[in-house]
């Protein structure tokens, strides 16, 4: 985690990730991307990428490499994914790391 709380709040809001210019974000100093899962990369409760987003997510990964992750209140949260099986399935499905955590996020609309 980070001590700089301003880094863990959303920096941009768009209709979906297809509206993001990943190269431009990198030019503006972004070093990586952390996505929410439900209604951002997947349909609710799904462990598969919503197909129309595949090209944009691939572009994001090509720009930021291993500095792309998912932080979800379902897959990866020990309360709902105690053995990590949802996180592993999601990682295999979308090809990016799912952050494992113990506490549900109450973040971030500031």
Descriptive key words:
PGP_Pase; 3 strands; 7% strand; alpha/beta; phosphatidylglycerophosphatase activity; 110 residues; globular; 25% helix
Q: Would you report the number of β strands?
A: 3
Proportion of residues in β-strands: 5-15%
Structural class: alpha/beta
Low-pLDDT parts are none
- Spatial ordering of strands, largest sheet: 1-2-3
Instruction: Classify the oligomer.
Output: single chain
Roughly how many Å is the radius of gyration? 14 Å
Q: How helical, in percent, are the residues?
A: 10-25%
Question: Order of SSEs, N→C?
Answer: HEHEHE
Q: How can the largest sheet be summarized?
A: 3 strands, parallel
**End-to-end distance, in Å?**
19 Å
**Averaged pLDDT, please?**
85
Instruction: Estimate the global geometry from the Cα principal axes.
Output: globular
Could you write a compact summary of the structure shown?
The chain is an alpha/beta fold and 110 residues long. The protein has helices at residues 22-27, 54-64, 85-94, and strands spanning 33-35, 68-70, 97-98.
Question: Could you please describe the fold and organization of this structure?
Answer:
The chain is an alpha/beta fold. The chain has a domain at 28-98. It has helices at 22-27, 54-64, 85-94, and strands at residues 33-35, 68-70, 97-98. Helix 3 links the parallel strand 2 and strand 3. The relative contact order is 0.18. The model has no long low-confidence stretch (mean pLDDT 85). It holds the Pfam family PGP_phosphatase. GO terms for molecular function: phosphatidylglycerophosphatase activity.
């Amino acid at each position: 985690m980070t001590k700089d709380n301003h880094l863990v709040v959303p920096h941009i809001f768009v209709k979906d990730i297809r509206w993001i210019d990943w190269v431009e974000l990198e030019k503006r100093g972004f070093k990586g991307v952390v996505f929410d899962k439900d209604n951002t990369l997947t349909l609710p409760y799904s462990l598969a990428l919503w197909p129309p987003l595949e090209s944009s997510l691939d572009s994001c990964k090509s720009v930021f490499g291993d500095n792309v992750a998912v932080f979800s209140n379902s897959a990866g949260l020990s309360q709902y994914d105690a053995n990590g099986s949802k996180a592993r399935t999601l990682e295999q499905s979308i090809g990016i790391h799912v952050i494992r955590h113990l506490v549900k996020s109450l973040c971030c609309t500031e």
